[in-house]
Amino acid sequence: MHEVLGHRNDNDVQQYCKLMGIDDRNAISSKQCTTCAVTKSTRHSVSKHAERTQVPGERIHADIVDWTADSPTGKRYSLVIVDEGSKLLHAVHLNAKKDAVAAFQSFLRETKLPISPTTTALQTDSDAIFLGADFQAIVKKHLKQHQQSPPYTQAQNGIVERQVRTLSDMVRAMITGAGLDASYWSLACNHALHILNNMPRPSLHGKTPLQIVTGSLPKHVPQLHVFGQPAVVHISTQRGRLQPKGRRGIYVGHNSSSNSHLVYFADTNTVVSSIHVRFLPFSKADDVVDEAEEQVQTSTTSSMLQLPSARDSSNSTTDGAFTASSSDDTSLTEPASIKQALKSQQRKQWTQACLEEIGAMERNGVIKLIPRSVVPRQHTPLKSRLVFKVKRDAEGAPTRFKARWVAKGFSQRPGIDFDQTYAPTPAAKTILTVLAVSLQRQHQLHQLDFKSAYLQADLKEELYMELPPHFTDIGDGAQRYAGKVCRLLKPLYGLKQAGRAWAKKLHTFLKTNGWAQSNVDACLFTKLHDDGQRTWIITYVDDLIISGSSERHIRACKQQIKESFEAEDLGPLTCRTGTRKHQLDLVCYSDASFGTDQLTGRSTTGFTCYINGCLVSWSSRLQPTVALSTAEAEYMAISAAAQDVVFLRQLLMDLDEPEAGATKMLTDNQAAIAIGNDHVTKPRTKHIRVRHHFVRELIADGTIVLQHCPGTQMVADALTKALDKQTFEQHLPRLVGTSTAEAEQRKAVEGEC
């Protein structure tokens, strides 16, 4: 009857049976119904946290909030921290969730709460950021304990979850009431934090969170106003007689460090702090934000906002212990366009950077300014843009404002604006092989970096390009560019053929000066000197690695390159010292996992190649066709691995380091070895495609030799399937081969094989 009535509860079933006169003594209970258990499952009630502490700094709670909208400076997340004892709130706005680690470390370093590694506990959810090694290292150093609530049990982290809800409700209400869009959440969040930290709480016996921590109430606090209310900031410095005395913006909060008002200007995306503010009758803030006011180019007594953040909160008296970090609204950001650059606080610096970039292009012969009227009809000028970048020092402080002028290559027309575009880059296995051989031969390794590499190449096509949009709006220095377009004389960044043009010029220079280009990798060059010494070069776009046994030859090589190109000498590469051996050992491990792909039935190939214990090549991928047996899958894996072995042997020959004898290829399948060694057609192997018998040819000409390796020592096994923890940890150090002991262990295995 329980099922007949649609799995209703026991009480409803009893009432129905009583009404209809049905005997329900044999009816099953809903508690015994499996269907009900599966479909009506609910969460168990979660017991409350242990007794709440009343001591500030004894237990703190943290959570990461996704606001689902980017702020004007690109922030999307907030790290929210709540002190259980005082109810004090703290928030730092983040570009990405991973930034929460650094933000939490700064909070621990600068907060005035009594945080101690012997008394303070932390409660978070099970977010991957909080469980990561970097975050756990901070917790271990500064806190007593870290408790995590299981997934989907927000109640166990209820203190911060409830505060986040309160904060979200306030932010939503403030931006909606002010008529602002969601991107203003960061400004509203800062204001909400200030209000919450200064509100009396019943649980604190009428005291405010700030009062609990600092022991006193703030003095001389100016009157709060409605978030988003129109406001005019007085301009008291020198100005023209006919220029306005004030500047209009919207009120976004209170600056505790200076007891002043915070006013936001939408046209420059900046916040200023001032006591000289006049508030206008309230209206929707859209009217103020959308108003295109003429920018007032004077400084005011109101300083640009420097709210306490992770970098400077220790020097502030704001809120005593916690402050809403508004590094979001005052941090140095990189504008996406000239219009944004002109509206930023750093307008002057960005303007100078734009003029310097275009001027340098003109002086260095990259472009030639011409009137638009002289551009041939068959040529349509390409579009361009400026990419802005803030250069910083090791401590993150800005050192230079850089604007890079690039072409919008997607508008180029094939066959007219460009022909071929391919530019070679070295294979990873080439770089690793050169490094491994250099290590073994005790070569010195040096680096060169080409400055503005593409601009040092030659452009054969006739191309014209527009100036960046709004470039003539940046000031008087740009007026002379009005009505002009550019004839490109060098391959500017962004052109489809720029990379190819640079590679062609560099490679031609090297070959002209006696360097031999490798037949297997176009980015590898070798040179035999008169004294029998060899030097190798790897080119990687605008970077260059030089390897050689003679420092004299390396210096001569760098000097020769620097005489023809503008390049920076980055000095030597550091690496561990090797032991010189007469011969190099190239060894390959090959393995396969039969039929691992359940959808297609194909097997997985995995192989690793080592040169004297250094991993230089590896692969893990599905096989191209279905194998009908384990032996066939292993044989196909050997065929794939042999292709890399042939490449590496040819590479060693180009380096004048040929391998003596056949390369050992280790596999754990005896049947696959038999297929390769025996040219016999058998019923179970007659169907194997001829392409895989490439292995037999390599065995016949002495290129490779197949040898058996015990399955427990097959390092490539980790690349074919999921292993248990113990086996994986056994293979892991041998996969990367970073220590001498591990290399000796590998040699012992290869000797046994």
UniProtKB/TrEMBL annotation:
Gene3D superfamilies: Ribonuclease H-like superfamily/Ribonuclease H
InterPro entries: DNA/RNA_pol_sf, Integrase_cat-core, Retrotran_Ty1/copia-like, RNaseH-like_sf, RNaseH_sf, RVT_2, SH3_retrovirus
Listed GO biological process terms: DNA integration; DNA recombination
Organism domain of life: Eukaryota
Entry GO MF terms: DNA-directed DNA polymerase activity; endonuclease activity; hydrolase activity; metal ion binding; nucleic acid binding; RNA-directed DNA polymerase activity
UniProt region (Disordered), positions on chain: 293-335
Key words of the record: DNA integration, DNA recombination, DNA-directed DNA polymerase, Endonuclease, Hydrolase, Magnesium, Metal-binding, Multifunctional enzyme, Nuclease, Nucleotidyltransferase, RNA-directed DNA polymerase, Transferase
Record field: compositional bias (Polar residues): 295-334
Keyword Iron: no
Transcription regulation is among the record's keywords: no
Occurrences of domain Integrase catalytic (ranges): 52-217
UniProt cross-references to PANTHER family, sorted A to Z: TRANSPOSASE, PUTATIVE-RELATED (PTHR42648), TRANSPOSON TY4-P GAG-POL POLYPROTEIN (PTHR42648:SF11)
Name of the protein described by the UniProt record: Integrase catalytic domain-containing protein
Species: Salpingoeca rosetta (strain ATCC 50818 / BSB-021)
Lineage, uppermost ranks: Eukaryota, Choanoflagellata, Craspedida, Salpingoecidae, Salpingoeca
